[in-house]
Design a protein that fits this description.
homodimer; alpha/beta; Aspartate Aminotransferase, domain 2; Aspartate Aminotransferase, domain 1; seven-stranded mixed sheet; three-stranded antiparallel sheet; 14 strands; 42% helix
Chain lengths: 383, 383
């Protein structure tokens, strides 16, 4: 077999839908010496990580931790632990991730009712209420806080109370929002949520933070059959994160180091300051993109994910390819019906800075024409 | 919230059942700058990793790759993709991991037949044949090549042919053996196998290499219903690893860097040299442990995992605690019926060296008495 060359990744500005740029601090933590998954030092790292996750999730939930797999496994964890075959669930579908939630729930044996709206739109509390009225046996409501496929920012206030009235749980996908916009697990009465590490937390991909409240725990405790996934079965994983420290699987030690460090940086910056940073650079990017003649797809845009329509006559792949090759900038293309029709420009965590905004507007403006106007508009927004 | 101290893991010699020590080269690769999971550079990293995994698995299987979760997810991946509800499977149970394979298969709806033998023993081909004779409808046979709970080394030659005669697939757990002892996927007619990164590959925990042959692919293609796990559904993951490069989940980019580097080191050393290194240090460790009066539990011991009985009157936790605290050496305790009765001493990958053997024998000999004799016995074995 021929030799494999030394690893030498190119320099990138990661401005797609994730992963985002990772701070050197986080990379250094990632590369700290591995210790055992039952080492007293590592148990302390787990406790720190839980406490820091509780802080960013704004929750007191004891069952708060990273699952040992990426964000989609977090979605599956929530569903397979909270749903039993035959349970009815209600899912808001307005993009890829709501669609996936339906698929995962169906694989878990659920009867899935969809409320749907156009990709890029969000649901009103009345629409959720109508869904619950139409399906009174629903035991779980799933909504996507940050629809990574469309950039839509779903308001959640009031939804938790609606679910509680019907004795349904509220499950929320906050993969893209956590650490970049408010996610108020306790105040919004969210019973379960999952996220990813590689978006606004700016940690490499590989783990999925999850959190479960008392009502979710009660639902798990009342199960009549085993969770279909052994790997994601929280009845066992809770014993590893709890006082028993019972071995379940070999934890991803170094990834947990990295997540802990990324969360320390979130805490040092402060949640409010971090959210304001995301809003500020979003406003400037938006001003610049609109100066280039690009229009935002969602009515309620996420600050950290900017989904814009590709103008007629512009070649999606040629532009993204030139950004990557000539400028080292990654932006995302569209998924599903948006393939070839949308760009998704991320401003997440360490990728949310003025130099990211300036570099992207300069490069994209150069390719589309209008760089000067775009940069002036951004500068005005910063002023 | 109080501040979280800087990450500062203690120095350890990792001589338990995994994770093993990780080379600085692998840690450096782990900390290389993150790129996107669809970046052309990362697609090349994926291709390199597949090719290097094919080399260590000794297979031409195209569907060879790391799953984005730890070894137990590799087990679950194999089972949920190869088994449909109602399928009969035959599992060899002689330790924790065979027991778990039954649990995972039952959760996938399989009817599980067990062949059992005492913990520490292995199965003969005749015992497997008798199991197949007793259950002629079996569609999958699961065996553990390296039973991490007992240190038993299951011979596999001839088993694949037995399975083929009955049109059953052979699934093998080689979590602990891969990279430290021969695993001959093609020559032994193994249809599917899974491993982990944190054993003899000496990469941090977090990924699970898997491989599937043509008969396994045909079984997947003939499925009548969706795989119950979305996250582990190979029908979609194949499209990401194949020419389509279809987005499924955000790959754990940095962990893949690390695995690629760990596999490069395996390739540079050479498989045969690496296996001989594991045998050599095992012989020396064994001589030393036996000089201390410790007896091996399995008849056929793995070289990389040495399971010995704890002598009467010796306090398991006190000894392991002293090794960790005073010497920075981690060894493993027993699982299940072996809890408090066995130690599991790993010599895996970067943890398989003369200084590991000497340090462990010196420290353990100091605690139990007899260090000088143990070290002399090991030195004699090296001579």
């Amino acid at each position: 077999m021929e030799a494999t060359p030394e690893l030498d990744p190119p320099a990138r500005l990661l401005m797609g839908p994730g992963p985002s740029d990772v701070s050197p601090r986080v990379l250094r933590a990632l590369a700290a010496p591995t210790v055992g998954h039952l080492d007293p030092y590592y148990l302390g790292v787990m406790n720190d990580t839980r406490r820091l996750l509780q802080h960013v999730f704004r929750t007191d939930n004891e069952l708060t931790m990273p699952m040992s797999a990426t964000g989609m496994a977090g979605m599956e964890t929530c569903i397979v632990n909270l749903v039993e075959p035959g349970d009815e669930v209600l899912v808001g579908v307005n993009g890829v991730f709501g669609t996936r939630m339906c698929d995962v729930a169906e694989r878990a044996g659920a009867t899935v009712h969809r409320i749907e709206t156009e990709w890029g739109k969000v649901f009103t509390p009345d629409e959720v209420k109508a869904g619950l009225d139409a399906h009174p046996k629903v035991k779980l409501v799933g909504l996507v806080h940050a629809e990574t496929s469309t950039g839509a920012h779903q308001p959640l206030e009031g939804i938790g109370a609606l679910a509680r009235e019907r004795d349904a749980l509220l499950l929320v996908d906050c993969v893209t929002s956590l650490g970049g916009a408010p996610v108020e697990i306790d105040a919004w009465q969210i019973d379960a949520a999952y996220s990813g590490t590689q978006k606004c937390l700016s940690c490499p991909p590989g783990l999925s933070p999850v959190t479960f409240g008392e009502r979710a725990l009660a639902r798990m405790d009342a199960r009549t059959r085993k969770v279909q996934s052994w790997y994601l079965d929280l009845s066992m994983i809770r014993s590893y994160w709890g006082a028993e420290r019972a071995y379940h699987h070999t934890a991803p030690v170094n990834m947990t180091y990295a997540l802990r460090e990324a969360l320390r940086m979130v805490h040092e910056e402060g949640l409010e300051a971090r959210f304001e940073r995301h809003r500020r650079h979003h406003r400037a990017l938006r001003a610049g993109l609109e100066a280039l003649g690009l229009t935002y797809i969602p009515d309620h845009s996420l600050p950290m994910l900017n989904a814009v329509a590709i103008p007629d006559g512009v070649d999606d792949k040629a532009v993204r390819g030139a950004l990557l090759r000539e400028h080292g900038i990654e932006i995302g293309g569209g998924l599903g019906p948006f393939a070839g029709r949308a760009w998704r420009i991320g401003l997440m965590g360490a990728s949310c800075s003025r130099h990211h905004v300036t570099a992207l507007l300069g490069a994209l403006g150069g390719l589309l024409g209008g760089a000067g106007d775009a940069l002036s508009a951004a500068d005005a927004a910063y002023a």
